[in-house]
UniProtKB/TrEMBL annotation:
Primary enzyme class: transferase
Domain Glycosyltransferase subfamily 4-like N-terminal as annotated: residue spans: 56-163
Domain named Glycosyl transferase family: residues: 174-340
GO molecular function: glycosyltransferase activity
Keyword flag Glycoprotein: no
UniProt EC number: 2.4.-.-
Keywords: Glycosyltransferase, Transferase
Record InterPro entries: Glyco_trans_1, Glyco_trans_4-like_N, Glycosyltransferase_grp1
One Pfam family here: Glyco_transf_4
Record Gene3D superfamilies: Glycogen Phosphorylase B
Protein name per the record: Glycosyltransferase
């Protein structure tokens, strides 16, 4: 394979090291497998109408110039997220006959495609003209086939994968000492953007119940503060409830995230919707139990006792699930967890992706 281009509206930078880290990890995995990859991506998560228009406009124009200059060198393009990223791949196909694949992560279908009829129509076109569509979860595949008219044999369910050389169990006392955590203190961990749709307010409310049962427990919220207004709302919720033990940790490097996952007693992922929930898989690879909303890809990932599933937007049920894990009332299905981690290992993922690339390139 000569060269591929990866387009993404999320990619990490020195200032924002975890923003779209899953895309960068896959790019590095492909490069290690001998694929020549160029990346055209947005590495700034800051929002705002004017700033958003400027950064997207600059990225879009730069990517079009890139396609023009590299049209004869490219075997195919790979867009992460259908809209607006997939528009670049669609233009590359229509102008230069470069085939493309699209990876759907959830928000592009659950939120973006539902904004208005025009975006929904464009999303449908992008998916139907792709050489192949990758969805990070089974529910997403069903929606793509049923609601967007894509042939089932043109869709593959495949997560972004987990690097077991990075995410693995560690000696808890040692990592806690390095992070400044008490060895015996129960630690509840959240990793994700601090936005309403991640269920952060419900988690804060659930933690109030947890503190009544486990007074010395702590809750650590790790992630980007994309919405300053919502972060202030979270802080107000904490203050108004006079809650102690909650820490807003901000963003962390991947090395630090590995330590936090290994140090935690449980990972909470109370999202309203989730295409797959990669951080849940990373927690399982780290040997940390997961309590998550029964939505999207999480429903499949944590089935059969691999984790604890609770209804979304339900602080009381979330508290009960977290207490269930903290009290060790129901041990996790370790065999299922290990099987899942193996199925989503980097080795398995890259082999599937390279086969998709090979088949897609033949359509040119």
């Amino acid at each position: 394979m000569k060269k591929i281009a990866v387009f993404s509206n999320m990619y990490p930078s020195a200032e924002h090291p975890t923003y779209g880290i899953f895309v960068k990890n896959q790019v590095e995995l492909l490069r290690k497998s001998g694929v020549s990859v160029d990346v055209k991506a947005i590495d700034n998560p800051k929002s705002g109408k004017v700033q958003g228009l400027l950064k997207y406009g600059k990225w879009f124009a730069s990517s079009l110039f890139y396609l023009l200059g590299n049209r004869r060198k490219l075997e195919l393009t790979h867009s992460h997220y259908a809209f607006p990223t997939g528009v670049l791949s669609l233009l590359g196909k229509r102008m230069f006959k470069i085939p493309y694949i699209v990876t759907l992560h959830g928000g592009d279908i659950d939120k973006m495609a539902k904004k208005n009829a025009k975006i929904a129509s464009m999303t449908k076109t992008i998916l139907q003209e792709a050489a192949h569509v990758v969805t990070v979860g089974e529910r997403l595949k069903q929606e793509v086939v049923e609601n967007f008219g894509v042939a089932e044999n043109a869709v593959t369910v495949m997560s972004m994968g987990v690097d077991q050389t990075v995410f693995h169990p560690m000696e808890r006392a040692a990592v806690r000492a390095e992070l400044g955590l008490q060895e015996t203190q129960p630690v509840v961990l959240f990793i994700g953007n601090l936005i309403r749709e991640k269920g952060v307010l419900e988690l804060v409310q659930a933690f109030e119940s947890i503190r009544k049962t486990v007074p010395n427990s702590s809750l650590h919220l790790i992630g980007s503060h994309k919405s300053a207004g919502f972060v202030e709302e979270v802080k107000h919720e904490i203050t108004s409830r006079q809650l102690e033990g909650i820490h807003l940790e901000g963003t962390k490097t991947q090395k630090e995230l590995v330590q936090w996952l290994a140090a935690a007693d449980v990972l909470a992922l109370p999202s309203y919707h989730e295409g797959f929930g990669l951080v849940a898989l990373e927690a399982m690879a780290s040997g940390t139990p997961v309590v998550a909303s029964d939505v999207g890809g999480l429903t499949y990932l944590l089935a059969d006792g691999a984790g604890v599933l609770v209804p979304p937007k339900d602080a009381e049920a979330l508290a009960a699930g977290l207490l269930q894990v903290l009290s060790s009332e129901t041990p996790a299905n370790e065999e299922k967890r290990k099987k899942l981690v193996h199925e989503h290992s980097y080795e398995m993922i890259v082999n599937k992706l390279l086969k998709i690339y090979e088949d897609a390139a033949k359509t040119r």
